[in-house]
Amino acid sequence: MNFADRLIAATEEFGPLCVGLDPHAGRIPDLFGGDTPEGVEAWGLAMIEAAKGRTGVIKPQSAFYERHGWQGMRALARILEAARDAGLVVLMDAKRGDIGSTAEGYAAAFLAENAPFPSDALTVNPYMGVDTLEPHVKAAEANGKGVIVLARTSNPGSADFQSKSLEGAPLYERIVEALAPMIERLKGESGWSGLMLVTGATGPQEARRLRELAPDALFLVPGYGAQGAGAADAMSGFVLRGNRLSGGVVSASRSVSFPPEAQSASSMDEWRTAIAGAINAAQADLMVAANR
Amino acid sequence: MNFADRLIAATEEFGPLCVGLDPHAGRIPDLFGGDTPEGVEAWGLAMIEAAKGRTGVIKPQSAFYERHGWQGMRALARILEAARDAGLVVLMDAKRGDIGSTAEGYAAAFLAENAPFPSDALTVNPYMGVDTLEPHVKAAEANGKGVIVLARTSNPGSADFQSKSLEGAPLYERIVEALAPMIERLKGESGWSGLMLVTGATGPQEARRLRELAPDALFLVPGYGAQGAGAADAMSGFVLRGNRLSGGVVSASRSVSFPPEAQSASSMDEWRTAIAGAINAAQADLMVAANR
């Protein structure tokens, strides 16, 4: 099935939450062995189990596995395989970007049919130009995958260049304008496109503007929860379909994977209960804001 | 020693060539076992041996190791360790870029004192803003490393956004202007800064302009050789020091690591001779253009 159709079906079944799997230094509970490649792997596999049936979408952040070297990348590969087997849609957050033949290497790593890091979509950086995105879009077309382009990110520094005027409109708008043909190419039967845009929850006005420019692109919205934005702001770029806001996923990481009750859990049962509770609470918070 | 001082000393000893280690699909000779993680590792270790004494600087491209999964990343780690032991300066070409806490993860992977992928400098993408570069600069200050920021790349798509006017000047110039304090922070005794800029050999005018804007930043110049630019164009942003052009490194990959004579070699001795010849020829070509 087309990636966009799979993603939107997952949000219709479970809600718009995307659970971030970001094993920050010092946060893996001792229950799993702490901050080692083995600890990260055990934690990630347990997170997949806890997420299954409560969310349809997860987003691992590559940096936190790379800092553990190849053993960390082995943990990532095994977590991705478990996510695939659990039927979760995996948005791989690696923010890659390079010229053609090199971009093909990244596409082979994450988006190919038998990719060693099996993912449903990959975040990519558009700075180097539209030609550098083409190998990813080609792989996505061939294999029913998605490509997630950084547009307006959630950090304060997004004001440095992204929001400045490039020949009359903000740089991030110019980028989205240039993506129109690729958005069209990755459209599914739902009408949504698997050429997704990153639009930070901390910029609700910008998200609404991007929705005007790209009515069919699914959004990946970071910045909800620990980074400070509420559910309504996070869904500013969503649109009504039936009686529910739709059009992307809202990602949360620390608040659902390292809630205080999980960090202080003294048994795996306690930890599982804490994670399930945090995911259910975030999903419910988003659903209240989404339902009309 | 400061990274910039080490890099410039290496170019003074051997010349401005930086040897790219980019194991493209289908290019690893059968002598090494072909396109497998083991083949990539054996080839990379042999390239380090062949490069030693002929160049001071190498640049592995992460994508080509990632496409082989964690086993490819293990090969990369071992090649990096061999390069360090051989005294080569390693510019890790991974073009990472993410918000603060995530950027710290990438810095831990590549620039920390005991990084699992030991590198002397890391290429980073500035699109997300100056705050996203800070963790890399901080790690570089602490550990005598460098940070290489994409400015004007060598691909045709660099015209899409990089060269367009952002509030009155090309985007890549605006980025370089914003980097001034970081360039200052990573300056060595040589006067050169380890906050390096990527300036494609295919844009000699742009390189000269960037040299005006950032007189102390070392340049990493891709696009020489297989991508089409000649030695003189590649060093457009360099400046005379004594009777030689100086100010960065010029990278070549396919032309020095997969020359036809090496691809058709029937023994390791033949392969070594071919690689040594290709590296020496590129170094000589650049030196002719550099010497005044």
TrEMBL record, chains A, B:
GO terms for biological process: 'de novo' pyrimidine nucleobase biosynthetic process; 'de novo' UMP biosynthetic process. The active site is at K95. It is an enzyme of class 4 (lyase). Pathway: Pyrimidine metabolism; UMP biosynthesis via de novo pathway; UMP from orotate: step 2/2. SUPFAM superfamilies: Ribulose-phoshate binding barrel (SSF51366). The lineage of its organism: Bacteria, Pseudomonadati, Pseudomonadota, Alphaproteobacteria, Hyphomonadales. GO terms for molecular function: orotidine-5'-phosphate decarboxylase activity. This is Orotidine 5'-phosphate decarboxylase. It comes from Henriciella algicola. Pfam families: OMPdecase.
